Amino acid sequence: MSSKDFVGLVGSRKTPHRDKADLISVWFLSNVPDIYKPQLTPSLQFFVKDAFHLRTLLLFGAAGQIILFAILPYRLAVAPVALLGLYAIATTCIEAGRGPSNAYMKDVILGRASAQLPSPETGRFHDQPAAHPIVVFHFGVTFNHPLGVLAPGAKQTIDHFTACNDSVVARADEYGMLGLSTWRAGERGSNNTLLMVYYFRDVDGLNKFAHDDIHRKAWDWIVKAGHKHIGFFHEAFCVPQKAYESIYVNFRPLLMGATSIKCTDENGTENWIRPIVDANVGPLKSQFGRMGRAFKGY
Question: How far is 275 from 32, CA to CA, in rounded Å?
Answer without folding.
Answer: 9
